[in-house]
Amino acid sequence: MEKMKNIKIALIQSKVSDNIKANVDNTVHMITKAAAKGAQIISLQELFQTPYFPQWKNMNKDDYAETINGHTVSVMRETAKKFGVTLIVPFYQKKRKDYINTALVIDKKGKSSGQYHKTHIPYDPGFYEKDYFSEGKSGYKIFNADGVKFAVLICYDQWFPEAARLARLNGAQIIFYPTAIGHIIGNEDEGDWHDAWETVQRGHAIANSIYVAAINRVGIEGNTNFWGQSFISGPFGKVIKRASSSKQAVVVAELDLEKNSFYADGWGFLTNRRPETYSKLSSSKKKNS
User: Fold this and answer.
1) Given 94, 108, 118, 141, the catalytic residue
2) Catalytic residue from among 94, 108, 141, 155
């Protein structure tokens, strides 16, 4: 049985400059607003303190990467403790010889609750992430904030139903998706990327009877126009809150976690699974025919 509880969450959707310290300061200001509205878990967007540098090739990793004891995490620890909130802090982590797209969870005392490392790494024009990020091996972790269990998956992970399903089966009541995604300027021939992005995540919410919170950025960086529109979906796919497509935003909503069980029990998407028929899902990768 899930522990039933209402929880107030916030998503911080910001515009990012080339000045890392200024981006951190701006985000602290927005966290202050979220905490004033009673948010208990606050999630930042993917790579919130840096430009989306993977859209370019041959950038210097060390211009953007920080250690776990660097400026960004130190400030966020202090901020979490000051306001007594849980923070989801995605940042570009340098760990010995590895460079990792990390989401660090910091509890309300300013202590680390663990890390998630981005599992699925894209490599396409405008998204050259394999040049910068090691494939994550942290597994699909579950974090706990005052008895509320949640998972953090990062950006490209949101296109994979297996990741969402495993998070739910592992006990998550909310999935947070910190994201950096937008339209590549001059490449509008592939259909409505935004519609697909939102639809697939609302589908994860429905299929798993779980709240989904997607956090994106806004603004034009290089050749990418980030579409914002961070949103929170209920466990049957209804969008509860959605942010602007062009402005910074603090998105706050109170979630009734009992609704997860209401829809799970009513539709049986978890209890009526047939795992014995899914063996090919764990087979080796195959190329498209």
Assistant:
1) 118
2) 155
- Please report, for the domain that includes residue 244, its CATH number: 3.60.110.10
Count of structural domains within the chain: 1
Active-site residue, 57 included: no
- Which residues are CB-contacts of 256 (< 8 A; sequence separation ≥ 6)? 6
Q: Would residue 46 show up in a list of annotated catalytic residues for this protein?
A: yes
286 is catalytic: no
* pLDDT the model gives residue 174: 98
pLDDT of residue 1: 42
- What percent of the chain is helix, strand and coil (3-state, nearest 5)? 30, 30, 40
Residue-wise pLDDT for 167-176, tens only, equals: 999 999 999 9
Q: Residue 1 falls within a domain, yes or no?
A: no
- The pLDDT tens digits for 240-260 are 999 999 999 999 999 999 999
Whole-structure pTM value: 0.95
Rounded-to-integer distance, Cα 244 and Cα 228, Å:
6
Question: What is the arithmetic mean of pLDDT over 125-154?
Answer: 96
User: In this structure, what token pair is assigned to residue 44?
Assistant: 């930042």
